[in-house]
Amino acid sequence: MADRPPSPAAPPEPPAPAVILIEPQLAMNIGTTARAMLNCGLADLRLVRPKPKWPNEMAKRASSGAEAVLEAASLFDSAEAAIADLNRVFATSGRHRKMVKRIFTPREAAQTLRAEAAAGIRAGILFGPERTGLENDEMALADAAIHVPLNPHFASLNLAQAVLLIGYEWFQAGVDAKPLRLEHGDSPLASKDDLVNFFTHLERELDECGFLRLPDKRPGMVRNIRNIFQRADLTRQEVRTLHGIVTELVTKRKIRQ
Amino acid sequence: MADRPPSPAAPPEPPAPAVILIEPQLAMNIGTTARAMLNCGLADLRLVRPKPKWPNEMAKRASSGAEAVLEAASLFDSAEAAIADLNRVFATSGRHRKMVKRIFTPREAAQTLRAEAAAGIRAGILFGPERTGLENDEMALADAAIHVPLNPHFASLNLAQAVLLIGYEWFQAGVDAKPLRLEHGDSPLASKDDLVNFFTHLERELDECGFLRLPDKRPGMVRNIRNIFQRADLTRQEVRTLHGIVTELVTKRKIRQ
Lengths: 257, 257
Description:
The structure is a homodimer. Chain A is an alpha/beta fold.
């Protein structure tokens, strides 16, 4: 991620899709939408006939630091005008409609958006007013619809949350699939040699204190104990800590003997 | 989706993870969290020392219809108590910490959660207070951390949005979840309660033998030691073995004293 631009409002490459809010009713929702957009590297906010006066202080406060997105937002009188420069438009809808329209999940849409953006295709996503959603005429402006798979008995999303989920998938589609990370702090993973040295130390002490006193059980017990520590992906520093624990737990005993 | 239960608050099968809010500060955020949970089929909300009085009218209004989740929420005095019955705990963190802990994306975590839930493993996800996030001691209670890949220059998420993204991935992972084969031997995974009991035992002995004698280093050392064992996915039998090891290593010392 080091090669991303330093400014939080700078659009990522390739150009991210525009977020087009049709008649948003609440200033707070415009602000939280801006925050969600910037979380996901989206910067092109377009407002069609917003109900709150614009610019708006409450929207600014609700954006929690994403003012740059609000300041750069553009205003339009119609959905047609807001999408005029775009090549590809998705509509979001929570409702099922009698409309012949391809329906994408956010994940599928994100893959399409990424692939098309890389080919120079400019895209936007339409979001309807908070209570009513998009009109059928606005749906008809879109190439396809995005439907978010959620609990079918409680699928209604806040506007900013709908923007967040779609933006999140856009962002994830641009992140190379990374394998599981282990945060090492300052210490590298222990070598197997480090580990075997610790096992030897621990088992010597366990022999001496009598924990492994039953000869026929000893091999199984040793394997079980080794498995515990094998699974922990120990760092070198942690192996040193474990050596210290064993040593200190038995030290006073030895001194007294 | 037609075979899902009719009640919106009914948990899906397999059991969904618990959402555990540590010291949530704002009633509104608890309400919007409940809404996000129900959107994603999550129903088990646990509140640890919430700042708002409880139950709370504002939380109810902010839930936009997810009152059932709020009404079923359980209250706890400590994070340890809130996770006592769980086998697997993820911590969410926006910050990078010097802590040896596996880090999952929400998508990776969701796959693990689905697979383990199918195998009967009960899970929960810890979320910290709005401004400060989880304390290191609370992070140390978790098996692994979840970090949401977002715009690195503007990654701060509202509490409910963090819950939404993780819940969303949980829900999506339900479409094609594959059960994970976990080889437990004859013993089930330890509960967090089992684990905390072992920590208490080990730390008492480490205090007594002087391993934790430097007061300013003690908290960090305790966290590091806990993290080692958190990562090992211990079974109940293995926790018994570890109790036995600690007891026997110190026994002769005590007899001689």
